[in-house]
Amino acid sequence: MTQKIDADHARFRHIVRGKIKENLKRYMSQGEIFGKKGKDVVSVPLPQIQLPRFRYGNKDMGGVGHGDGEIGDPVAPGDGEQGQGEAGKDPGQHAIEVDVSIEELADILGEELELPRIEPRGQHKLEAEKSRFTGIHKVGPESLRHFKRTYKAALKRQIALGTYNPDNPIVIPIREDMRYRSWRTSWIPESNAVIIYMMDVSGSMGEEQKHIVRIESFWIDTWLQSQYQGLEVRYITHDAAAREVDRETFFHTRESGGTMISSAYQLCADIISSDYPSGDWNVYPFHFSDGDNWSNDDTRLSVDLLKTRIIPHSNQFGYGQVESPYGSGQFIKDLRESFGEDESRLVLSEIPDRDAIIGSIKEFLGKGR
Q1: What is the pLDDT of residue 181?
Q2: Domain termination residue (choose one: 61, 83, 114)
Q3: Is residue 234 located within the same domain as residue 353?
Q4: Same-domain check for residues 350 and 272
Q5: Beta bridge partner(s), residue 242
Q6: Does residue 240 sit within a domain?
Q7: What confidence score (pLDDT) does residue 129 get?
C-alpha cells in the first residue's frame, strides 16, 4: 500500500512539474510565485488540477451524520434552498496551490531556459562543517534511537532465549537491545556567493518598473541558490545618493529625486572590498535603472568604477535597463560604447516590459559565470 501511495505521489509531482513548465513564462512575467515565497518552498497556483482530500464539516451543521436525520434531508449547508440565476454552460475555473521546493523550481528554470551550470571562479573554496550518520552504537541519546535495529536486536535475543511466541508475537526491547545512530563530523569545501542588487529609485522609476525588478531578482536568486551552498544578498538604492537598505525597503521605497549612478557603484565597490574578497567569494552585482544619469561626468566616473573596482572582483556584472516613459535610456548606450565586446563579464539587458523578463534572465544567467 505504501509503495502504491508513493507511486501515485510521484506521478502527481510529475504532472505538477509539467504544469509549471507549461506556465513558466506566465509565472515569470506576472509574478504569481515569488509573492508566496517561504524559507525553502514556494506555493504555485496550478489551474485545473484537483487534489482529492477530506474536508471536515462545521460541528454545528445539521443533516445526516450529525444528529437526527431522515432520508431526503440535505447533507450540506443551505437547507435545500434553490440557487439564484440562470443555468450556465461553461465549466468553472478551479485552482489549487502546490508547494514546490526552491531546488526543484531552480531545476525547472534551468531546464526551460537551458541554463548552464555555473563554474565558480578563483580561490572560492571555504570549509564548512558537515555531520553525517555513519554507524550504529549501543549507547546514545533517545532522539537518535534506531527503531528497526533495536527491534531486530530484541527479536534475536528473544528467539535465542526461546521466549518468542509466533502465536503471540510480542517483542519487548530491554536496555541491551537499544541501538543508536552515530555520526562523524567532517569538513567539506563550500562555494559562497553574494548578490548585490542596486536600483535607481529616482523620480523616473515608477511602481511598474520596480515590480519588474522584483520579479527578475526572485528568479536570479532562485537560480544562484541552486548553484551555491551559501548565498548572501545585499541591497542598495540610489537617486542622487546611495544607501544600503533591507529587502523590504529596496522594493517599496517611493521614487523621488535625481540620479547619480556613481554613488551606487562607489558603495558597491566599498562593500565588495570590505566584506567579500574575490579570493573567497563569488560576487554578482546587478544594477537596474531606466538609463537616466545626472551628467556625462558622472557617467564617466561610473564607467571608471566598473573597470577598476567592480568588474575585476566579480564573476559577472549585470546591468538591466527597465524602460520608463520618463527615462532617456542613455546609460546602456554609454556602457556599450565604453566597453564594446572586450569585457565578457559585463552583461547588458534591456527590459521594455514584463514579457521581456524571461529573455533578460537568460541573458544574465546564460553565460554560466
Answers
A1: 86
A2: 114
A3: yes
A4: yes
A5: 238
A6: yes
A7: 54
115, 109 contact by CB (below 8 A): yes
Residue 334 CA to residue 340 CA, distance in Å, equals 10
Work out the percent of the chain whose per-residue pLDDT is above 70.
67
Is residue 150 located within the same domain as residue 239? no
Quick one: what percent of the chain has pLDDT higher than 90?
30
Within 13 Å of residue 45, how many CA atoms lie on the same side as its CB?
A: 14
Residues 211 and 246 in one domain: yes
248 vs 13: CA distance, rounded Å: 33
Total tally of structural domains belonging to the chain: 3
Residues 146, 281, single domain; the answer is: no
Kindly report the average pLDDT of the chain as a whole number: 78
Report the C-alpha gap between 184 and 178 in whole angstroms.
20
Question: Is-contact 139 180, C-beta < 8 A?
Answer: yes
Alpha-carbon gap, residue 358 to 215, rounded angstroms: 10
Do 109 and 137 belong together in one domain?
no
The residue type found at 320 is G
Whether 71 is covered by a domain: the verdict is: no
The reply to whether 356 and 311 lie within a common domain is: yes
Instruction: Please check whether residue 269 is in contact with residue 300, taking contact to mean a CB–CB distance below 8 angstroms.
Output: no
**Residue 361 belongs to what domain range?**
191-365
State whether 104 and 232 are in the same domain.
Answer: no
CA angle, residues 105, 110, 114, in degrees to nearest 5: 155
Of residues 231, 228, 223, 133, the one with CA closest to residue 189:
228
| Positive or negative: CA dihedral 201, 323, 20, 219 | negative
Query: Which residues, in sequence order, are CB contacts of 153 under 8 Å at separation 6+?
Result: 173, 176, 177, 178, 179
In a domain, 82, yes or no: no
Question: If you average pLDDT over each of 161-175, 216-230, 264-278, which comes out highest?
Answer: 264-278
56 falls within a domain: no
Q: Provide the residue type at 86 as one letter.
A: E
Question: How far apart are the C-alpha atoms of 206 and 191, rounded to whole Å?
Answer: 36
User: If you average pLDDT over residues 301-307, what whole number do you get?
Assistant: 96
For 46-94, the pLDDT digits (tens) are 554 444 555 556 655 554 555 566 666 665 555 545 555 555 555 544 4
Q: What is the pLDDT of residues 109-142, one digit of tens each?
A: 888 777 877 766 554 444 555 566 678 888 888 8
* C-alpha span between 99 and 105 (Å, rounded): 10
